[in-house]
Specification:
The protein is globular. It has two helices and six strands. It has a six-stranded mixed beta sheet, with helices on one face. It is of the alpha+beta class. α1 runs parallel beside α2. It has a single domain, classed as 2-Layer Sandwich (60s Ribosomal Protein L30, Chain: A).
């Protein structure tokens, strides 16, 4: 759209992207995060709960870098490899959302790009 400013963003505090994509794209007052995983973190290869905590910490880091917090989180799309762990995931999410519940989708997938990953989270913020 004419007059719309699109910014493709990477964050030095996050693991480097493993493909041709940006960590996030900002368009106007909306920030779209790519799918974040625990790849390259200490949680890689660990439980879904530990991976979820690592991913949500990354998402919070982006929020802080953008001058906001989790209360600005509009929507998450979560991909997990084992739906039987959804109950534990919901507890982790509730802790990180701090009462500001975004719109959400939860999808079971057969696998993610690396076999030692159990979860991937995409997020959208309103800034």
């Amino acid at each position: 759209m004419p007059g719309t400013s699109i910014q493709r963003k990477t964050y030095a505090t996050l693991p480097a992207a493993v493909g041709p994509y940006s960590h996030a794209v900002k368009n106007g007052n909306t920030l779209y995060l790519s799918g974040f995983t625990a790849f390259g973190t200490k949680a890689q290869g660990q439980s879904l709960e530990k991976q979820a905590n690592a991913i949500l910490a990354q998402i919070k880091t982006v929020a802080v870098d953008e001058g906001t917090d989790m209360s600005s989180l509009l929507k998450v799309t979560i991909f997990i490899t084992d739906f039987s762990q959804a109950g534990e995931l919901r507890k982790v999410l509730a802790q990180h959302y701090e009462g500001h519940f975004p719109a959400s989708s939860l999808v079971e997938v057969s696998r993610l790009f690396s076999p030692d990953l159990n979860i991937e989270i995409e997020a959208t913020f309103g800034l």
